[in-house]
Amino acid sequence: MNTKYFTGIIVGVLLATLLFSCKDRSVSVSKVSAKQQKIDEALPDDKAIDSFILPYRKHLNETLDSTLCIAAENFTSSRIGLESSLGNLMADIALKQAQSVFEKRYNKRIDFAMLNEGGMRADILKGGVTSRTAYEVMPFENELVAVELSKEKIQMLVQYLIDQKRAHPVSNMKLSIDKSLNTVKDLMINEQPFQKDKTYLVLTTDYLQKNGDNMIFFKDPLALYGTDYKLRNAMIDYFKSVDTLKITLDKRIHYAE
Amino acid sequence: MQNRRKFIQQVAAATAFTGLGGMSIMSCSKPVTKRITVLHTNDVHSQIDPLPSNHYKYPGLGGFARRASIIEKIRKENLNTILLDAGDIFQGTPYFNYYGGEIEFKLMSKLKYDVATLGNHDFDNGIDGLFGQLPNATFDFVSANYDFTNTVLDNYVKPYKILMKDGIKIGVFGLGIKLAGLVNKDLYKETKYLDPIEIAQDMSKELKEEQKCDLIICLSHIGYEYKAEHDMVSDVKLAQKTKDIDLIIGGHTHTLLPKPTVLDNAVGEKVLINQCGKSGVYMGQVDFYFDALGNKTSLGRSIEV
User: Fold this and answer.
1) Which residue ranges does the record assign to the Capsule synthesis protein CapA domain (chain B) (predicted)?
2) In this structure, is residue B8 part of a structural domain?
3) Among A110, A120, A244, B136, whose CB has the most other CB atoms within 10 angstroms?
């Protein structure tokens, strides 16, 4: 037998034995240290990663930033009495866009819409309105849903609006409040006086339906109807369908004179 | 200082022997310290680019290109580095709405992520939407408490994954949050949620006793702690009610811990919990130093966090 070959086997066996015995020895943690690495501008960009992202970023920016319609004025959530230019626009868009989907799917009409003041995360500024605008105003994935509510729940909803004294967006309802008594002076829904012998279909978002902003009257409705239509997509579709956004301030919620 | 010097010498020795065809014979007879670096993110929420400079909480932070460069630097310092994510990879920027998660998975693959778990938002395009993006991910998904038996993800998401680094056996298992109430059932379909603590107890037993792992990491998307809702399971409860887990990497609550929390587990041993906010604004780094003498009881472990 070749000596070199034989030595090779010996070394091999020796190594195998050592490795095997090593394997049996357990290792254990003797020390742990940690740090939180801040990802800021002090770190250079990895060029290869950045150039991979570039075409996506470019396409996205072009898509998001193409003008869909023009805002004639600034739309903000700043309160003017108990309404706001942006709130009215949002609630009107939600109702208009959801209504057609809803009629097709359920063969019913929604009576009115109610959203929350805090849900509008940015203003719509005068000038070109883009998809990015919709993402800024509505970054959440909230879906439009309709709930069938009893007269008691509608009364709770109205009392909530009165007590909150905030400009929660509504559409297709008119509420006149007696400020001194903190009660309803007059309530019109779908251009009809409030009727106590019927139920109402109210459009809102899945977030609010599940008790967001403490809107407990949306919980456990008589019926719940999904639309699979995100509020943001409703906005984008609406922006595409019009040339100009115009402010509507019609004192839909106000204190009686 | 003394210890640090000694440690550097040991690392130098270990590195020298690794050069001999990877067979460090002397590690049997001489004390050699090995180091495993664990890097982790959570709740990146499709934050591909840095956050805008006018962001209310984390202006200008985050971004994959920057994260890639620091990961590369850390890997150069220590080859034995693993990269993990604790879920909610999806949802938060139009990148997700437009590309459905493709860019997130492709980038994580380029950054050489090893393992990720699933967050509730990873179901936002439905279990089918998630399944459709899996070909873009070269890394593995783990979840031990989601039973995917009657779904498309069955066999694609494993309870745990074992990684070997420098002869150290690392077991990584995943835990997810209860989906009912957070995600529409139409999206998660027949996914069944199992009790995280019971499952974690099974997992640590499997990984420690059966698989003989040297390091056990839980990738958790159950949330750090719920002070108002006492009944809700959380990483803090998980840490205290289990054993043999070395590190819980958390997510869901977007908690930015200034440093990892150190708690006593069910048998009085130390366990770490770490979580790094959201959107990739910070990346966690936990370094485990292993003593090859196998002298755990006399040495204990020093935690310098």
Assistant:
1) 37-279
2) no
3) A110
Chain A stretch 117-136, residues whose beta carbon is closer than 8 A to a beta carbon of chain B: 131-132, 135
A220 close to B (CB below 8 A): no
Average pLDDT over chain A, rounded to an integer: 90
Segments of chain B with pLDDT less than 70: 1-31, 293-300
Tens of pLDDT, residue by residue over A184-240, are 999 999 999 999 999 999 999 998 998 778 899 999 999 999 998 999 999 999 999
- For B208, other C-beta atoms within 10 Å of its C-beta total 16
Domain with B69 in it: what CATH number?
3.60.21.10
- ipTM confidence: 0.87
How many other CB atoms are found less than 10 A from the CB of residue B195?
Answer: 12
Question: SS3 breakdown of chain A: % helix, strand, coil, rounded to 5?
Answer: 40, 25, 30
Question: Quick check: A247 contacting B, CB < 8 Å?
Answer: no
Q: Which of B168, B261, B288 to mutate to test the interface with A (most CBs of A within 10 A)?
A: B288
Give the C-alpha separation, B206 to B242, whole Å: 13
pLDDT of the residue at A4: 53
The count of residues in chain A is 257
Q: Establish if B27 belongs to a structural domain.
A: no
Report whether B236 contacts B225 (CB < 8 A).
yes
> Which residue in chain B is spatially nearest to A54 when comparing CA positions?
B49
In a domain, B144, yes or no: yes
Closest Cα in chain A, distance from residue B215 (Å):
8
Question: What are the E-state strand segments in chain B?
Answer: 33-41, 81-85, 115-116, 140-141, 146-147, 160-165, 168-175, 192-193, 215-220, 247-249, 261-264, 270-274, 282-291, 302-304
pLDDT in tens, A110-124: 999 999 998 898 899
Q: Which domain holds residue B148?
A: 35-298
Structure tokens at B2: 């003394």
pLDDT of residue B20: 39
DSSP label at A31?
E
Inter-chain touch B103–A141, beta carbons under 8 Å: no
- What whole-number distance in Å separates Cα of residue A149 and Cα of residue A110? 11
The total number of structural domains in chain B stands at: 1
How confident is the model at residue B73, as a pLDDT?
Answer: 98
* Residue B157, in any domain of the structure: yes
**Ordered domains of chain A (ranges, CATH):** 79-119+143-229+248-255 (3.90.780.10)
pLDDT at A18: 42
